[in-house]
Amino acid sequence: MGKIKENQQKKRQQLFETAFDLFTSKGIHETTIQDIAKAAGVAKGTFYLYFKDKYDLIDKLRKKKTAKLFEEAINFSRTVQYDNFTEQLLIIIEYIIDEFSNNQDLLRFIYKNLSLGMGLQNIHIDTDKEQGENTTSSIYEIFEERVKQDGLELKDPRTTLFLVIELVGSTCYNAILFDIPLPIEEFKPSLNEAVRKLLNE
């Protein structure tokens, strides 16, 4: 990677990190582009080299955060014993719930947009722990491959995954932050049952 490209990536990452800190401390609506640029130590004009406006940054940052969360959850699931894809997916969901429970600022920022990162082609999945190999795929591609391996009869795997993730995102937001309809620990059995039904189990 060239020096210029490397510096550009560093500045972009710095803007992401600074914006997230400000959004979670001050609030999205209260944070201006000037606030972000100043805190990141760059000129306001530099911001526009990477993002069209504040809402473009928010959209990209939500995708980045959700994709990273899925990456961590999937790789964690590969360290746990499971018999089929449904069990693996429930492990992934459990991981996401725990992360949101422990980091409610992240949950508030993502809001109910957990599905945003599913189509990104930058999910690094460990395929061989001993050799350190990994693949880069989207959540959709990973899901479809596992559905084929397990022989699940899903008419449209991507739609099913979208429904599952939307359900998890909304449930986490309401149950973790507001105990609606129940605290998340009490609601998890119902959530797991709903996921199994969506997967035709």
Automatic annotation (TrEMBL):
Molecular-function annotations in GO: DNA binding
Superkingdom of this protein's organism: Bacteria
DNA-binding residues (ranges): 32-51
PROSITE patterns for this protein: HTH_TETR_1, HTH_TETR_2
Entry keyword set: DNA-binding
Coiled coil: none
UniProt xrefs under SUPFAM superfamilies: Homeodomain-like
Protein name as catalogued: TetR/AcrR family transcriptional regulator
Originating species: Holtiella tumoricola
